[in-house]
From TrEMBL:
Protein name: Glucosamine-6-phosphate isomerase
Known catalytic reactions: alpha-D-glucosamine 6-phosphate + H2O = beta-D-fructose 6-phosphate + NH4(+)
Family: Belongs to the glucosamine/galactosamine-6-phosphate isomerase family.
Biased composition (Low complexity): 299-319
PANTHER family attached to this UniProt entry: GLUCOSAMINE-6-PHOSPHATE ISOMERASE
Keywords: Carbohydrate metabolism, Hydrolase, Isomerase
Keyword Isomerase attributed: yes
Length: 384
């Protein structure tokens, strides 16, 4: 599991959206080989969606061959209700991109048979080949989707009674009236999320610091369902500084040091988007790091997992030709994007410290950087 720490929620949103963009572009989806994306609702991912829309409008990202599955939906709330998750997803994302209507999948909280609706959803996920990347947020009590504390870690899509804390948290969307908040929801299960080939969680704010600490520093526990990502072979959490307030200082320094090692000793040009290492910097004549790592180490990802069979790293020429001829969209090459590009390194590596920066300085230790893209991203508002 990787933990990426950024300064504030805006930087987290920009990083996350950029990562999703590059994962889709690297995968090079086609009609026969679509990119399947699981998406969350709630306030946390809103700015991520704004950035994705902006990437699409700029021609840097196409959703033509993307299939989406939303995480959850309220029971009994009409789809036309402004606070339904169906309306939420259309308002913030679907109405502004070229995602095909038949590729949008959402749970129906008004179905006559809710159990059958949940089974239909699970079957549909399997039918399209499973979810490639599940993007998610968490609640202050550490729940993923609506998998409240106590949920089975093997659970699948089902009807769930919402905890009172969740009802209180969501009351802000219903004029502060808890009586207007639905008490039941349909939600993908913890097991459904675990089955995705990659999981990317966004955690921001001091009010979620305890949940992050439970996830990172303690064991897997069904009372903190987010902790299940410890068991996933390809999981990443992107958080802001406030969310780390309950972590031990040595834990924060450890994860930040991973970024520094990747950047300074391995070289960003040798690190894949998901953290896989292609070769050592010392094998490049332009680098001289004196690294003593063995060649065997170079085939292991930074999280200790080989990502060579992730499915998104290679594609046949036939599929590539199909993608170009069938897309009908203007899509820039990943290499055409400069400052805002996470790059071939995976955007979780940071720039080398300034030559004038003494080793061990606070900026060096924190692995922080300021660039034009993040500065401009911080100023971005709703583009609609």
């Amino acid at each position: 599991m990787r933990l990426i720490i950024r300064d504030d929620p805006k930087a987290v949103a920009f990083y996350t959206a950029n990562y999703v963009r590059q994962r889709i572009n690297e995968f090079r989806p086609t009609r026969k080989r679509p990119f399947v994306l699981g998406l969350p609702t709630g306030s946390t991912p809103v700015e991520v969606y704004w950035h994705l829309v902006e990437f699409y409008k700029r021609g840097d990202l196409s959703f033509r061959h993307v299939i989406t599955f939303s995480m959850d939906e309220y029971v009994g709330l009409p789809r036309s209700h402004p606070e339904s998750y169906c309306a939420f997803m259309h308002r913030h994302l679907y109405d502004h991109i070229n995602l095909r209507a038949e590729n949008i999948h959402m749970l129906d909280g008004n179905a006559d048979d809710l159990a059958a609706e949940c089974q239909r959803y699970e079957d549909k996920i399997k039918e399209v080949g499973g979810i490639e990347l599940f993007l998610g947020g968490i609640g202050p009590d550490g729940h993923i989707a609506f998998n409240e504390p106590g949920s089975s870690l093997e659970s699948v899509t089902r009807v769930k009674t919402l905890a009172y804390e969740t009802v209180l948290s969501n009351a802000r969307f219903f004029g502060g009236d808890v009586n207007k908040v639905p008490k039941l929801a349909l939600t993908v299960g913890v097991g459904t999320v675990r089955a995705a080939r990659e999981v990317l969680l966004i955690i921001t704010g001091a009010h979620k610091a305890v949940a992050l600490a439970k996830c990172i520093e303690e064991g897997v526990n069904h009372m903190w369902t987010v902790s299940v990502v410890q068991l996933h072979p390809s999981a990443m959490i992107v958080c802001d500084e406030d969310a780390t307030l309950e972590l031990h200082v040595k834990t924060v320094r450890y994860f930040k040091s991973i970024e520094q090692v990747q950047e300074q000793l391995i070289g960003r040009q040798h690190i894949g988007l998901k953290g896989s290492i292609s070769k050592l910097a010392r094998t490049d004549p332009s680098h001289s790091t004196g690294s003593a790592l063995s060649p065997a180490d170079a085939s292991v990802t930074s999280s200790g997992v080989d990502s060579s069979n992730s499915g998104g790293d290679s594609i046949s020429q036939q599929s590539a030709d199909e993608d170009v001829s069938d897309s009908g969209d203007s899509l820039h090459s990943v290499s055409d994007i400069d400052d805002e590009d996470i790059g071939s390194t995976t955007a979780d590596v940071v720039a080398s410290p300034s030559a004038n920066m003494p080793a061990g300085s606070s900026s060096d230790t924190n692995g922080a950087r300021v660039n034009n893209s993040l500065a401009s991203a911080a100023a971005v508002g709703n583009p609609f």
